[in-house]
Write the structure tokens for this entry.
Amino acid sequence: MNDTVSTEALVEKFDKLQATIGIIGLGYVGLPLALAACTAKYKVIGFDIDGSKVDQINRGQSYIKHIGGEELTKHIKSGYLRCTADFTELAKADAILICVPTPLTRHREPDLHFVEATARTIAKHLRRGQLIVLESTTYPGTTTDVVKPILDATGLVCGRDYFLAFSPEREDPGNKDFSTGTIPKVVGGEGADALKLTSILYGKLTQKIVTVSTTATAEAVKLTENIFRAVNIALVNELKIIYDAMGIDVWEVIDAAKSKPFGYMAFYPGPGIGGHCIPVDPFYLTWKAREYEISTHFIELAGEINSVMPKWVVDRLSLALDQRFQRGLTGAKILLVGLAYKRNVDDLRESPSLKLIELMQARGAKVDYYDPFIPVVPPLREHAGLVGWRSVDWSKDTLAGYDAAIIATDHDDVDYAALARHSRLVVDCHNACARHGIKGDNIIRA
């Protein structure tokens, strides 16, 4: 097989929707991507090491709140979607998309063991004419320096026998305005053929393709997007602390500032940052920059500010308990309203609520939580002691039984009027009460 024939044949397969797409990792990124590929009429094989996830999907049961079981069932019954934990079936895929976690170590350094293990698994089954695309967020150079050498060790040649690219995921769970099919897709390839193939593939899944010159550039795009958010959130978090000391309402300031039609973009403070991107991604660049003897002062400062916000909230709570009820946190009963890292999702990854619980318990408080999206705390990489916790029932008597409630996640499906009416003290980290027109002497912002 010469490389021209191989490339042309694969181009035709993708263009005519005759290719089989393999997606490794069926979480918040991989599962929506699989559904988008099925909607485009590609046949999809989903791969995951978690057999229970595989079984659930094959039964048409979604374990992600914002993905309906009806859509899964439709694609499974039509034959477009099939999931497996048997990775020997990777050989059947014409394109393999890698959607595995890229967390940090305890020392805030990149942990690529999921990516490396996945690349080694692919290498065992790699064949000529396959396209491999990494979607997992990582530092510039990972595709060429980490994934490519593992695949090259098979003896197959990148750009001739197989093709390699990077296309960063841009999922925003719970966002009703944008989906995998409507968010522009950035693509960088190892060579012109890889770029062409990847553009054709994703061009069937999304409305717009944005090509960049290299995989490292595409990797840098994703980091830039999330560093931008991390830095601006840190800025408003710091402003919140400053303005609070001055007796100024930061929420009122932001609302007035965003009336300017140019030169300003509104970001909002909170009890910390969470999710799989913003708390993690900036430190991938920080780590990589050390290789070039560059210090990332700005990024690291933003990380420091955001990381201390849970402590600031707990301090505000403690002060309010002391001023209003002449008691501290020791022995206090606290209800945490919202456990997920953001509004209207069931995702707990890096949620600041977990840190809030840890800090309050360390100071002697008894903490419960209420979250309509998380009835039971699932297995976690950290905070193992919280696994199995259950959301309390929502009632007048329940709310009245706590010394204070903290709005840590501002889900829409919460009766904030009842919370304010029946709680002795409400610490609002998201201005949720004011947004719903609720006022009261028992409500403070933090």
Q: What stands out?
A: The CA atoms of residues 56 and 62 lie 7 Å apart.
